[in-house]
Design brief:
Blueprint (H helix, E strand, L loop, with lengths): L7 H13 L2 H8 L3 H15 L4 E4 L2 E4 L1 H28 L5 E6 L4 H15 L4 E5 L3 H10 L4 E5 L8 E6 L3 E5 L13 H4 L5 E3 L4 H12 L8 E3 L2 H9 L5 E4 L4 H5 L4 E4 L3 H4 L2 E6 L7 H19 L3
Parallel strand pairs: 3-4, 3-5, 8-9
Antiparallel strand pairs: 1-2, 5-12, 6-12, 7-10, 7-11
Length: 307
Amino acid sequence: MMLSTYPEKPISYLYLVGEHGGIRRAADVLGINPSVVSRQLSFLERSLQLPLLERRGRNVVLTEAGLLLADEYARTCLRREQLERQLQDLRHMRGGSINIRVGQGMVEDVVKYVVKEFSAAYPSVFVNLMSGDMQTTVMLITKGEVDMSVSFGPTGAHGLTCHSFNRGPICAIVPPEHPVASLPSVGIAELGQHRLIAMNENFGLQRYMNAIFKSEGVIYTPSYCCNLFSSAIALSQAGLGIAFMTAQSIKEPLARGELVAIPINHRLARESQCHLLRNGDHRLTPAAHYFWQLLCRYFNAEEKGDI
């Protein structure tokens, strides 16, 4: 029997066993009973007439034959992902595509100052604009599923090309009638006396806030936790707590007088940064390279106060 005629499911199970070091761990990832994985792998071994697993202590490792199968499966999955991206371009009838992740607080500026100019220069290129936490973004860039990102956080990402720009200061965001609203700046001790709004732990902004509170020996105890900046803004506008973000992230509510941004009196808050990230090993298309140049130009100009 040719290898290509074997069912793909047991080979995918074998790959996961190798990745996670055990049948039970692979089954947990798959959300199925370990006995199902064992039966499928036993079937594959009988069909190939080769051992695919061997036990080493408490762990299970792949034999030479198992490694060959798992490696071929991984390459096949990668080829399929590349094919799907090419087919996606054809479905959109575009001359290529760009996948970019942008932190929620910076989407409006990127669309206004970067995407608009890019689309005028490359109207046939499909732009897939997503938002998400920095941890997932770094993983997707490393895997080649995202071309570049605009992320916010205390540090960039090791192993990736990174350009960092000052984005601060991080501010306490409150309605005009809030007790903090009349202060020129606010310290951590004062903030600790009010109801606070937190973002999900994966947000770069929240990592900043955790580090700031920790450095002052104050326990960060939020009353609310959000995974959308719009939710945090709504809570703040309702007077239910203090949100934290840069003034650039809420330009319109500030201009309308609905919210006030009070700078946090702390070094980390004053020096907050955004990071432009891409995989240096991933060659960009001319269109993607132009998009990257526009991002660098915009955030450099913003840092200098030219925008």
